[in-house]
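Hi everyone, sorry if this is the wrong subforum. Our group has a chain we'd like a structural model of before ordering constructs, and none of us has done structure prediction before. Sequence below.
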Amino acid sequence: MLIILALLFYCFIVSLSFKQNSKLAAFLIFAGCVFVMGYRSVDYTADNVAYAGFFINESKRTIAESWKLVLAQDTKDPFFYFIGNILSKLGFTYRGYFVLIAAVFMGGYSYLMQKYSKDYFMSVLFLFSLNYAYFSMTGLRQALAMGFCFFAFDMAIRKKPIPFIILVLIGYLFHSSALIFLVFYPLKNFRITYKQGIAVAIAGFLALAFPSVINSIVEFFAWNDDLMAYSDRTTGLTISGFIIQLAILTFCGIYLAHDSNNSLRNISRIEPSPEFIAQKPMYEPYMNIMFLGLIIQAFAVNIDNIFRMSMYFAIFAGLAITNAVEVQEGENKTAFKVVLTLLLIVQFFRTTSYNSFTMFGGF
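Answer:
Right subforum, don't worry. Here is the predicted structure as tokens:
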């Protein structure tokens, strides 16, 4: 854990020291995170050991043999291993692949952070405190897929549907769950009304009162056998993940829409005015993507692996929350920033994911 704490302190210093040069700050944070995450000990998690073994075994095949496996689709996401084999022929070791995966994941997140975050340190602290960084170091196939979805998010905001679709499909090659991110484009600019809240309430009610319905919904929408297998699971996660996401969404919903000058007067309004939306074009995308994550996270109470689908959307709260703080003024902004940072630090120490983190250990 001390290494991760040192990394977070480094990110804090960088974010303070290079406020006037956002691109340099984002790059330095990216480089520090890739170094630490990419050079983690292989035995940090059992999944890392398995992936290193797969890489070594795959490197013994010819490229043609690996491509046949891609066409046969006999294993989960074979394109991931096919790319690994190509890299091995170029001189990469499994360590090089780990670093590359960390670079794609953090590269996408750092790119968005530089464009959309108002507080780099808070965005990075969010990533580690809510275990998204940890997951990127154990779920390597999905980490690659999410890296491409980060860039796809930017394409969606810039209203470029073709690049958006291409990036999501590239992510899909590495982890089939990435296909769910396609729903973001048509939903990103939906007006924020009570209807999204009703959808969350219905999802939560079904998950708690009629869990078998959730299994049926997953089975109906599954687009391959791997996802179909989720519908057979009956082991769920605790409701804490749902509550945390709900709290973040509620905070952002209130303070993104109502700055410190009008929050008391307009706090009861469900829908922001058209003038507000025109001035803050990121409000609807942020809220809609978090609503999507929350609805899917409700299903994880019954089917644990569903949280993988929720991550594609919920992780963007790390950008939204900094914008909610930024629209405040004076003492309000300082108070919110201090309180939220302290809450994230407390959450970081509550998690045990980084207790055994070390670096440079081999296979």
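For your construct planning: Residues 259-270, 275-279 have pLDDT under 50 and may be disordered. The two ends are 21 Å apart (CA to CA).
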